[in-house]
Design goal:
Blueprint: E1 7-12, H1 20-31, E2 36-41, H2 49-59, E3 68-72, E4 83-87, E5 92-96, E6 112-115, H3 131-144, E7 155-156, E8 168-170, E9 173-181, E10 187-192, H4 193-196, E11 205-209, E12 212-216, E13 228-232, E14 237-242, H5 247-251, E15 258-263
Parallel strand pairs: 1-2, 1-3, 3-5
Antiparallel strand pairs: 4-5, 4-6, 6-7, 8-9, 9-10, 9-15, 10-14, 11-12, 11-15, 13-14
Length: 268
């Protein structure tokens, strides 16, 4: 079997209307013509770093090992924020040092963070407003073409991280938070259901968030018979969904809202 062409994925809030994603692809193909470029998301809400981090977490693990993932949601472009090349034993990631890369890196061990300082791996005509094209796409292409990762810049040990705390068990309750709301307004929590399912024996568990209590946990969205239901999503996390609507819009709740999972009989 012939060797696989290097795969570079693009996740951004650039949209597809203005040619910015096309410019990134053009830079990549100019430097590494054999690279296969996959746009995994271009419609992350503008400047929403947590949604960018969520989109990257949703897509990157399902690509084959050895891919290069570029994530650019970058409201700090042109400031002193760093550009990063991050490597795990499986993949490489490039993006601004604002937390957009950190959720996908929660699981892997032996992670190396490098600051992108070597100007040889960015466009010679680079400006200050489009690091997605001038820095991250160019660096990804050079990496795909075989450049030594150690040449891109020095290692660092203090990357900016988005909050993703572990849930806490206290007083017969599991305490978590909403980490993000998705395209449909589902409120994604930090609570992996398999970790809490057996904590309270065979008791029926319900979810409370904000002023809404005793939300039932149901098998799928189609089983939501009341206004809200909690389901286990594709990444194994509990999320709160609204019946044919947006839970985020209906509740007004945002990232960081407290979530409680408890036996139904323990909820007032």
């Amino acid at each position: 079997m012939p060797p696989r062409a290097p795969i570079i994925t693009l996740t951004s809030d650039f949209g597809m209307a203005d040619g910015t994603v096309g410019a990134m692809i053009g830079v990549i193909k100019s430097i590494c013509p054999v690279a296969e470029v996959v746009v995994t998301a271009a419609d992350v809400p503008p400047h929403d770093i947590s949604r960018g981090a969520w989109a990257l977490l949703q897509s990157a693990p399902f690509f084959p090992p050895g891919c290069i993932h570029v994530a650019v949601v970058d409201p700090g472009v042109g400031s002193g924020r760093r550009g990063l090349l991050v490597q795990t034993e499986r993949d490489s990631f490039l993006g601004p040092d604002n937390g957009v890369l950190t959720w996908v890196l929660r699981g892997p061990t032996n992670v190396t963070y490098r600051e992108l300082t070597n100007r040889s791996y960015r466009l010679a005509s680079a400006g200050v407003t489009f690091d997605g094209r001038d820095l991250f796409a160019a660096a990804a292409a050079h990496l795909a073409a075989g450049a030594d990762p150690s040449a891109f810049g020095p290692t660092i040990d203090d990357p900016v991280r988005l909050e993703w705390p572990d849930p806490v068990v206290r007083d017969e309750r599991v305490l978590g938070i909403v980490v993000v709301s998705d395209q449909f307004g589902n409120l994604i929590t930090n609570v992996p259901f398999e970790q809490v399912a057996g904590l309270f024996g065979d008791a029926e568990l319900v979810v409370s968030v904000g002023t809404i209590t005793a939300i039932p946990i149901v098998p799928s969205y189609s089983h939501i018979r009341e206004e809200y239901g909690a389901v286990v999503n594709g990444t194994g996390l509990l999320e709160i969904a609204a019946h044919r609507g947006s839970a985020a819009a209906r509740t007004g709740l945002q990232r960081g809202a407290a979530v409680i999972i408890a036996p139904r009989e323990a909820v007032p």
